[in-house]
## 1
Amino acid sequence: MGDIAVVGIDCAFPGAAGVQAYWDLLMRGGDGIGPVPGQRWEARDFPAVSGSGGFIDDADVFDSDFFSVTPREAAAMDPHHRLLLPCAWRALEDSGRAPGDLAGTETGVFVGVMGGEWGRLTMSDLARVTPLLGAGSSAGMAANRISYHFNFTGPSLAVDTACSSSLVAVHLAAGSLLTGECDTALAGGVNIVLSPSLGMVYGQLGLAASDGRCKPFSADADGIGRSDGVGLVVLRRLEDALADGQRIYAVLRGSAVNQDGRSNGVIAPNRWSQQRVLDSAYRRAGVTPDRVAFVETHGTGTVLGDAIECAALGAVHGVPRETPCAIGSVKGNLGHTEGAAGIAGLIKTVLALHHRIVPASLFADRENPRLRLGERGMRLLKSPMRLPRGESLAGVSSFGMGGTNAHAVLGSAPRIPLASGARTGGARDARDAVGVFTVSGDTPEALRRNLAAQAEAVARRPRGGAAALCWSSNRIKTGLPHRFAVPVRDTDELVAALRRAAGPQDAAGSGGRPWGRPVVAFLFTGQGSEFPGMTAGLHRDSPAYRRHLADADEALAAHLGTSVRELILSGDERVHRPEFAQPALFAVGYALARTLTALGITPAAVLGHSLGEYAAAVIAGALSLDEAARLVVRRGALMGELPAGGGMIAAGAGPEELAELLAGEHGTVLAALNGPADTVVSGPLEALERIGRALAGRGVRVKPLPVSHAFHSPLMAPAAAGLRTESVRCEPPTVPVASTRHGRMLRHELMDAGYWADQIEEPVLMDTALGALVADVAPTHLIEIGPRGTLLQIAARGGRAAAAELLHPAPGAGATGRELAETVAALYRGGLDPLWEQLYAPGHRVVEALGPYVFSPAQSHWDRQALVHTAPPQPAGPVAVPPVTVPPVAEPAGAGAGDHADDPVLLAVVQAVTEVGGYPPERVVREARFYEDLGFDSVMIMQLKNQVEARLPRVGEVSVQQMLPALRSVGSLAAFLDDMLLARSA
């Protein structure tokens, strides 16, 4: 049998809500046994059944809104199904994946569930049977609901072999993985004690513990105590889990299932069958029993069951070995979780192998001497047992009342050597690396709730770098509509940011929901933005930027004969000379843009300011990197050969205001039209000084620009002539280009030698180019691509893109990787799903454990009266579909049904939706979408059609086919019905 990795876990057991709480309960030797809640039944009415057991505190709580389940359907659902859905979500998160990433995949679901109490309780009154109850009470739906809600298309089946159901489910899931039916599997089981009926059966069979506690292998053992429980594990083929870098808790080495056949009785255990299933499992795992360090037994605490199991275990494990085989049973802590018993034992064993310590077995202090454990080569764990270094092996047994036996063999996870530089990011300490921590929720309230939960989870960790935590959050916590993201370097900073965002006064924590992907435009800065050491901090922090800058440097070096990367990073003052400034700025622009596109930030359009057009042309597909590098080096060399002299000034005035001044100064021209009152003048220095003084006298803002020549003026004619003779290999752009040469969008024109020559001496038409870009693509975000903020200030002053968010990943000398991270964070908040791995060094791409998703506790879907059982012999009364308790939800004014009195059609639709879905009227707003927000399915749509026809008889009969296009929202359906009424009236 091939090896199967356990990569994710979630569970809830009595006294242990979650994996960590379960492990804590086991290690401290605690138990979850308590009195029967009145929600289940009145214990005093059933003296034949123990008044104690193991009960999950909040088994009635279900976040139906999260799973798009209507309140009416949630009330009809078997509580087993309601426990499984959030458990599945958290287990998948624990495996290091956002659950939504598996939608549409052949992920398998295998669920052990025993009996069908919910169906018996809710469908006994035939007059009250509904389709929702029919689907809600089916055992098979326990697995199918998970597959449906998560959109999994692999095998999906419920298993009922009584008490061995969940371990048999794990066995079947492993087989499905090994045959290639699925690549990921969820496997486990669930059990809720809904009535005293099975407890009465146990009592009549002499199997019930008087105090409701299982005491496995104890001299005080007197039977079974029943308990709730739910647990799921995520399984992958070991080689796949290793290839994907998933955390591996333990490895399933092999498993086996068999049947007692015709034995002492259909519910009597059979020693020989138990012995055979152990032998078969070890054979399939390729191990011998002497190598097994401990066995998590079935261990119910019945006198006969314990005796038979110990005899079978002794026959297999009583072989020559260095130390006796340790045994224990989690039922001492939890009670008998029946359909979930196998998964409870398996999760305990997986955690023991993961932590390398086996918890003690409760009630072991009074070991039953008649079991002769020592003679049989075994010992009952009276204290925790540490596991030695190297591989450890363990077994898990689970036996069904009807004779179906299962045994699984598990091993510790393989040791994986850390790659060179792992956790340190290579050149930099992990504490200094920046990342983006992400959290998402299905509502603003859910986002705040989970921000607070993540803050507390991170606060419990040792202080240190946060990069790996950020990477993990990007993989796991990004799938829901309301988004939060923050760039951080260490856990202290992260905790503070999360707590601040979770607070009621912080707007960032509200997590605005993006309704689409951001539309991004890149604005490439031109000459004048260069400075020694530009982007050095980003180069230090970003592996992606380092890689792309190296690519540009290599392309340029072939023509320049030296390294611009070294020039840039060394702080060389030569960066101000045109022959070096232009290649250096091109390299920075190209590397920044490629870093962003590698992160999944694809521009809808690009704009380059003068020299910036070269990098823009590469990103747009008009020039190759090598061709652009050749042209930029040639351009810089031609300009560097020009005689010194001339300069440029920026003036806060329009062309009309400057015309008279320019006419009086020979050689001065408009070099750039950046905005309505944002102009650059180029010409001789003395003339510029006179113009500047005149403008200043009028109160106009004037600023000399740090340039070496009078660019974009007739003085550039020799350089333009030199470039015009070049043969340029170019293509029509594949990304729209807003040309600052023409002041409009380029369609299919080539950016050839004539274009680049004209671009040198003609003015930069920034304002009209930006206006054309905004009109063409309507950007939601403008990103400046350059080492210093220039173009975003121009855009803000000109007001051309007032609605766009302005971002700059390298905004000056102090910029590091944080500004790049904030750019990515802002775009994620705006609806982008980045390619997060490009933000991190390989050593930081390590999945770390995060706090599980916290679902809303506000909705109770279990009537505390309808299922209260009365004492026999009175006949049970009819059982209605339990109503749902839904908390009031604040909605905009005018949202309630009472506010639709002036719109009878809308009122009728709201009433129909309320009736079918069970929502309070104030929840059914005009904008509510039937499928996404209200959780309607095809059955409910049929019921909605009938309700609408009954409430609006003048509409007549409406077919579902007619209604379907109108089912976008409550309001769209009302508008459709309004139109039908008008048509029929006419």
## 2
Amino acid sequence: MSGTRTPSTHRAARRRGAAAIAALGLMAGLLATTPAPAQAATNDAPEVIPALQTWTGGEGAFVLGAESRIVADADLESVARQFADDLEATTGFAAEVAVGADARPGDLTLDLDPGLEHADGGELFRAEGYRLTIDGDGVEIVAPASQGAFYGTRTVLQGLVQSPQRNSLPAGETVDWPNHGVRGFSLDVGRRFFTPEFVRDYITMMSWYKLNEFQIHLNDNEIARPAGGWKDAYDGFRLKSDDPAFAGLASEDGAYDRADWQSFEDTAAAHAVVIIPEIDAPAHSRSFIRWKPELGFNGGDSDHLDLSKPESTETIKAVFDEFVPWFEGPDVHFGADEYPRSGADQYREFFNTMAEHIRSLGKQPRAWGSMSVMHGSADGYDRDVIINAWNNGWYGMAKAEADGYRYINTNDGDLYVVPFANYYHGNGLNNAGLYATWLPNRLGSTAVVPEGAPEGAMFAVWNDLVHEEYTELDVHGLVRDSFPVIAQKTWDSQTPTRSYGEFVAVQRRIGSGPGLTTIDRTGVARSGELSLGAAVTASSSGEGTPAESLTDGLALTRWATTEDTADVRIELAEAAPVGRFEVDWAGIAPASYDVAVSDDGVFWQQVADDVDGTAASVELGSLSARYVAVRDIRADGGDLGAWRMSVFAPEPLTSGATATASGVEAAAFPPSLAIDGDDKTRWSANYVAQPWIAVDLGSEQQFGEVVLAWEGASAKDYVVEVSDDGATWTTAATMTGQAAGARVDTVAFEPVDARHVRVTVTAKNLSPYLSLFELTVPSIAEAGAWISAELSPEAPDGPDGWYTSAPSASFAAGGTEGAPSGVEVRIGDGEWSAADGPVEIGAQGEQRVEYRATVGDRRVAGYGIVKVDTVAPSVEVGADRRPAVSSPRSPVRFTIEAHDDGAGIASVEFRLDGGSWTAWDGEDVVVDAPGRHTLEARATDLVGHVSPVASSPAPGRG
């Protein structure tokens, strides 16, 4: 509920009783209750969030093509157009929307069938369910209502975005529906203003996970009375009316006008989300009392309305009268929590009056449950109110169930976040625990009401800390990963079959969805990724599809070009061992491409030539590199493009290792999660004084570094130990006085040869808790086969990488695959020759230097371009007399030509008859004066060499 709580949906008027399900089973046109189980060799279900309720696998796949259309019933045109926008954003395919057309092979079809039913899904299926059929000829989504059709498009998009080239789906069929009608989130904007752009993004993002209710808490104030009185308290009311009667109510530091609100409603309508507006009274009411002090206790020195005054209730009714016409959803929330018990009877009268008043405005009332504290029971309270059951003391789910209310699980102990507080999940919800054991009918892992009894569940953000400095994006960082978890557990309310680590992997692949403008605009590195944010250049790029999209870490930005071939170069922050290159091609994959790596950007080791364009990964073999080039990318009948190119470090030694620990806080947080390569999963230790985690690498390895990514409950002091046998341990490093909070420690020590590594924590920052996201032992293994070249002098003495005197190059090869032999080099079109020592590169111009060797039994090769300009440019001057039609005597025309085989000409100057030097503009120099003339010219190349002066005499006019 709103405010600081003592720790401790819109519901379709539908309960899923056995009798109702049995009756549905007799209806005509009923879908099969349980599809036949998938047979061997049939396709697995698409990995989506939330997971599909059913799946019958087929064979083969649907492939999206350039001619694919979206064909829709007229009643689903708006869904189809949103689908088309999102399809282009997520896959790069622009599909025509054909309303009322006949489907043809390759199309994606949306059909509305109000008679479609499903026994297990019941009314929830009729409201929000769909059937999705995929085969080689097309995709068909059939739904009883538009919401279900929209959710079917989310399943299609999530499946496509994870496929190679984002263009295919496995053949099969699902019948899918939610287990709960309320799947939502509540945001407190009263205590902290969130921009309209952020609000629209949240509505859009929620729909990606099939969450359907966004509750927005529109007014509130700081919790404790300031020393100077309530007049000094922060408060916020976030709706701004044009009616002068409400002047002064809206907050000056941020409020939504009618146009803002309409944009929220439009966004919600386009994304199958319902907005639940909440105006909270009679507690949390400092905004109303600031506006009209006479409404409060103590002459206005209060944040509670004085309900003994009739004008208090009448004023709140007037506020609802003013703003309810803005609200397009069926439900409106009037708060009604945490009022002083001394005013219990007046509170109950207010509760009932407001519930009836909201119904009179055509809306279903909602409120936070407070009956247990106020009266010990719900006797005398209006029962036609949907209750947020937020705290067992104030009014929990069991009480609401017994009293016959419709209610939503919003339990504070499980589902509240107060950003950066030391209570109510200040660092975000326990997502792994919720995923593993929580359900909407449970508190923690304990069922307190029957399965299916709650309308559903919401989690909530409360911005209690009004004077703390943090941003809306900081809040998003705390709760981003809770949306998919709550979506999963409210849509498919059962214990998941996939692990939390597997679930998070799917979440990362599908992202937060299309259409976002403010959130998730900062890329997230994948495990071991070195290239996030790296500088990247391409030989060509299309408008709006720049090369930097390849390394920005965002799922829905891409690089593209209409050229038939292209080159891309990625520059890492520093030279480091690289393990593999990955690419996510956009549209049609190229025919082939080459990959090379370099330490200096001059000399490159060829890693792979003519890679099959459909290949998404190339092993880089632990070669040292600062630059990775993807060259000669050759189109295969379509434009070239890619969503992401990534360079990864070599696989850490902890990949595939086993972990043990002193114990766990709960079964959902085993030590294996600390070495799974995922920084969103964690090991949580038991509450012993000195917990430890140990990793068996499987065999003896050499390493000199351990990287520890701590959760907020981090270690203050700890010891890193190594062992050959897991019994006798040697200290490698001791760390003391480490900072509190989440952090990443890179612990370096002299390289050791060991099989086991153990971290023992001797002091905690948040005792008794300790959590570790990831323990990584980086590999320091040498590359299997490498070849390199080095210039002397190392740095060019001219501009833009040009040498003005001939450099020499030295070549070397090596690696763990064997001794090097047969090191050879050739320059330009010359012959191959042994490279036993330095080789001078003396030819003028850009010289291609190729070199090769054998390491063990493996051939390795490299190349580079060395720019040499040791020779000054040349210039020639000529003169002629060209007859003119109008005169028997013609002027003299001097011609100038400059040549350079190196860096190129920078400038040319001339002078006439010993006068001043003048910059030449490239045109002939015309002299029309009588007498004999001499023109001199000189050229300067780009590295500063100046040519000898050339001259030509010529007779002038007679």
## 3
Amino acid sequence: MKNDLLINRHIGITPQDEETMLRKIGVSSLDELIDKTIPSNIRLDKPLDLPEPMTEYEFAGHIAQLASKNKLYTTYIGMGWYGTITPAVIQRNVFENPVWYTSYTPYQTEVSQGRLEALMNFQTAVCDLTGMPLANCSLLDEGTAAAEAVTMMYALRSRAQQKEGANTVFVDESIFPQTLAVMTTRAIPQGIRLTVGRYNEMELTPDIFACVVQYPNASGNVEDYRSFVEKAHAAGCKVAVAADILSLALLTPPGEWGADIVFGSTQRLGTPMFYGGPSAAYFATRDEYKRNMPGRIIGWSRDKYGKLCYRMALQTREQHIKREKATSNICTAQALLATMAGFYAVYHGQEGIRNIAERIHSITVFLEKAISKLGFRQQNTQYFDTLRFALPDNLSAQQIRTIALSKEVNLRYFDNGDVGFSIDETTDIAAVNVLLSIFTIAAEQDWHKITSIPDSSILQDSIKRKTPFLTHEIFCLYHTETEMMRYIKRLDRKDISLAHSMISLGSCTMKLNAAAEMLPLSRPEFMNIHPFVPEDQAEGYHELINNLSDELKVITGFAGVSLQPNSGAAGEYTGLRVIRAYLESIGQGHRNKILIPASAHGTNPASAIQAGFTTVTCACDEHGNVDMADLRAKAEENRSDLAALMITYPSTHGIFETEIVEICKIIHDCGAQVYMDGANMNAQVGLTSPGFIGADVCHLNLHKTFASPHGGGGPGVGPICVASHLVPFLPGHHMFGNAANEVSSAPYGSAGILPITYGYIRMMGAEGLTRATKIAILNANYLAACLNDTYGIVYRGANGFVGHEMILECRKIHEETGISENDIAKRLMDYGYHAPTLSFPVHGTLMIEPTESESLAELDNFVQVMLSIWNEIQEVKDGTADKTDNVLVNAPHPEYEVVADQWDHCYSRTKAAYPTENVRENKFWINVARVDNTLGDRKLLPTRYGTFE
């Protein structure tokens, strides 16, 4: 009997706690609660068929063994992924720090100022390097950014272009193949046509509305696109440029030669390759296009007393508000990796980054000269870090490959027989000597060891960067490790994360990200592998991926899995693309409507539109269930055109709908598919499954149910699981000869964080996973019982219980007292808590999801806090507290206000700052007062240089 399993560390409730909670709920056992919560006709009749759980110690040995099967060769493949040096101060204090990786997307501005500043640094660095005035705070990867650029330019077509039906994007042929593949997947369902050719030979016909080029291009050549951009603009076309962010330290930035959009990856700014991801893509554009821009934007604002602060700006563009009219379906981005890239820019500054770029370029110049003397013909006239050689007639690429592999080196092999390589930040004298030896041996000549490389450049003056970058003082102050460490610490002290208290965000599943799951990510064997290495060099990754895929099939009850989607929204999109491909294969491609309940998360309709469908909304009844009469009517009305139903289960209202099997049957009887949104899978695992219920496809949020951290807004992973008839249509990848439905630049998306979920499943086992689900439901029902007589619960299931989350009623409070759900959310910050989900899915309410990881002590403390706030509300109601000057409408109370000499409120400082004894013992001091939510939208200031004056 193993007593040291993760189940005992991950789950916060003891058997003794369980008895106390069950009494409060009013049931005799946990099984009775589950029986009354989940419909009997969807309950699994046997345990999940998963391997026996490992202890944390056993898993550490197992994951080390898997890691050892990955071969760490020196890789010069390039193509969007490069060796980089993650500064240890950033790896230790950000990447491996739970304050940074367990925080949530910074919607609650007042308790997110640290990571908001870090993301503002990222945006500023991107704007400076690209020469553009506006950047977002990351996208999923370079391919996705390219696809988003195409979608954005399509939306920006002139009236004349829209009237004439201009629907073609010209793409230069020298673009990374994975970027073209993802653009193609996303363009087709939107009616956008891609035409590929040479930028300097193409003719701009009236059907072309945009162009995409790469800088330096896929072969490594630096093209001067100035005249091409002028020609495109004269023809009414927008131009998007995929740019190597590090090269822009030396090359004229695209913003200076007229680009409308600049996008790419910041991976080489200190983020390991991770076998393809995660890393932060960047996206920059002109200020006039800000309302069409995808992704989140950080901007300046002020708090109620005028103090400068940060907030997420222009949120009305986002899917959770705009739904089917959103600019994008993006929800999760890559906040943690963007934070790291921003800190990399802060740590190195302008001089440091320029030195890194110049050193890379000097090595490349040296190698070109040396290798050309051996009879190889270098093809790039202007380059930054990449050389492409045509081989002598007596030599083949295979001969070079054999020599290179014998020296544990991966080069790039072009389809026409050319051989190339991309130099990176990690390349040193020893590596240069090995590279030279490969080509010298191939040329059958003598090799002479070199000991130094002179500074040199071959860049023409016309393409050299002449403007400074990273000139803000933030990029000048923190170049020693001591100062950098303290700066990072100053920022993380401003944010609430799971390291401080429970984050009860409904629909977000902010559970424990166990250290034993996280530790493997720092192993070099997982960090430093390029996604395009030969498969025998990544056997450990492949074994892990295959094992994890098999486990997810068992958990979901499905036949196939794709791990490629790198966010939940990307998973939604992928599932819908798979459905479309299947319908087309059986002659049903005309089906173009998606039925979506009104309670659905905004990504559902946004993803449906992105996938080329139109949406039909189905009503919910007064109990929060899908209105069965309306569902039947809508399904029948659209019978011949219905492609799928998108449904979340348990519902976004937090309940297990009893009619779910009948709902699936109604849809299937129409010839359509059932897409189950896996956002609430944390209430299913081990007790039921999408496949058992009758769905055809689901996506999973590994950053919710399966213990991968949220990272302040990413990275996420959104794998899809499908029934057998959909397996042939799962995403392929051009590296495997099939780019159909490719949705990510890398074959396995964000492979680098898969060890977290793999560890969670292997250490929890079937029994642990099932108990986690039961305790998540127990904890939610306990909170519902504790708060029912005060706030009240909006929706309950058929037997009077909630699922794993509940919606707290706040609308009556507002009617009676003027105190809003937002006031309650802000007041929670004074007590040291992040707010629950605000006004979603029901306006004027709070949605709470405690997860299984919280202890009874933490749950009771949260209840005490909520009841204390309830009493504060009653004081407003009965006139004890002033309606316009009370602790709720003035919340949160920042430290600088509480300690000021002047106090202008009619209640005490103690009531404001120390409302309970627990708060006094563990006070989280807030940095800013309530932030102005409109100032930063009226005047968007997206860089550190911004000013309201």
